[in-house]
Automatic annotation (TrEMBL):
Domain DJ-1/PfpI: 70-232
Listed InterPro entries: Class_I_gatase-like, DJ-1/PfpI, INH-QAR
Keyword entries, A-Z: Membrane, Transmembrane, Transmembrane helix
Origin organism lineage: Bacteria, Pseudomonadati, Pseudomonadota, Betaproteobacteria, Burkholderiales
Pfam families xref list: DJ-1_PfpI (PF01965)
Highest rank taxon of the organism: Bacteria
Name of the molecule in the record: Transcriptional regulator
Sequence intervals crossing the membrane: 12-32
Amino acid sequence: MNRPNRRRATWIGLGIAGMVVIALAAGAAWLLSLPPATTPAAPPAIAESERAATLSALKPPKRPRPVIAIVGINDATETTDYLMPYGILRRADIGEVAALATQPGPVKLYPALRVEPDATIAQFDAQHPQGADYVLVPAMSRDDDPTVLQWIRGQAAKGATVIGICAGAKVVAAAGLLDGKRATTHWYYLNDLLEKHPTVRHVPDRRIVVDGRVATTTGISASMPMTLTLIEAVAGRDRAEAVARDLGLPHWDARHDSDAFTFTRPFALTAMGNTMAFWNRERLGIALRPGVDEVSLALVADAWSRTYRSQAISFAAQPGPIQTRNGIRLLPEQVGKDWDGERTIALTAEPHPAKALDAALNGIGQRYGTRTEALVAMQLEYPGEHGRTETRTTSMQ
């Protein structure tokens, strides 16, 4: 296995498969050392002074109508981190939004979907020699890709605000932009981030942390409140609230219960059990159709591909790109008219994309059990009741 493929393999499932191997080797003592599941607490409200400071720091640094670049590497960039900000920002119509790749060709998203980016970083630089106003950095299969690190540094030097989504904070840190700064990241990668970059000052109980012209977020689902916060900073509260209503999100802010997200005993046992049942794994099809909502699609495909029991596969009747509601081009992973109806994931008819993840998690719970539902919610760092097994009401806030 060559080096990029080996790196990608170790990244699969947020590294949890590797932890399963450790658990099998260490045995019961290791499992017993893990804490039981925790009950999420209701975090206190964010002070108005803190909220105002966050919005002030995120104001457009260059243009009233900003240029926003979402960058990914071609071989593995996180699905929701890449697609959700794109779809929401395009809905908001607050600036020019471009989905970029470091090299020509499609971007293979992880754990599901494949897209045709708007441009390469070289093409973007030729079109925007003054640089972007904002650069969004999703989680990637490797933190040390020299091309993306050099480009992020260059954009920061031109005055861009750099936003690390989820474990994209590790990429931002590797570019040297988090040295001595306050930050956060996905719970699973926090220790790794702090070990490699000891001057980073972790801020607990916040989904969004802004320090100067650099922002970071907690896990995958945090890209929605982060994007709405950015919309508010650029275009005002009324515009952000209108987009939030369109998404089906009544309110959002930076509050977070960090203690609710950790490697617990139920989490480990479920990951182990689902991984070991390799004979009982499914490929579930998602039909790609023109005009599909990319936010709903990303959330659903991401969730169903994190069960260790299933993998979401996009399919279409014909080869070639299929344009989503807000203009990104999806490339089907399989071409064919039909898929076994019992193994098809139907995107919900619910018009509000924020509800799509709830529907997907409920479906996962019904198909594989509530422990697998909680396993997926924990990977997505999704606050609310899906992290527990006895109730079913969640919130993206």
